[in-house]
Amino acid sequence: NLMVDYIDLYLIHWPVAVTPGKAFPFSKEDILPMDFKSVWESMEECQRLGLTKAIGVSNFSCKKIEILLATAKIPPAVNQVEMNPVWQQRKLEEFCKEKGIVITAYSPLGGDGAPTGTNKVMECEILREIAEAKGKTIAQVCLRWAYEQGISFIVKSFNKERMKENLGIFDWSLSLDELQKIKQIPQQKRFVGQDFVAEEGPYKSSIQELWDGEI
Question: What CA–CA distance (Å, rounded) separates 11 from 133?
């Protein structure tokens, strides 16, 4: 259906399964436990067959990655998670670095405008002060911060000027003092995955169960 011979990266989007044939939005009754071992074995086979160059995960906690690594023959290349200066995920970042897993940040600017987005990143006073002092935009400060952490990131824009702005992060750097200020920003997760918490599913009680107490 994709009309290609291979894909570059194949991810497990969330650490949950749904009834075959169902798509979002799905009912709570369709949320199922994921058999990490068998799913990952199938993805490893896809990579061995050359159908994908790399395989990875998304929205996985440290604990869930540990479960996966316990039986994996090919470790995940990527863990794609929400990450920005307002949700820095330092524990997860260090864990993935130790395991050789690249973090890809989605919503690196907060996802403002999306149904589950937040304006807390683009309206952060600390980021605004840093941006003004450097003659940059808040978006550029956010992307440069991620770049300096060794984090890849996904940005979305159909605006030519914003695309140029996003590329203008490679000929300057943040000072140690500025990085320390960013580290002190109060943390708040944007998208907690509430849709996957249900009495009928594997995560019955709270979002903390879904995220293994890591948020």
Answer: 39
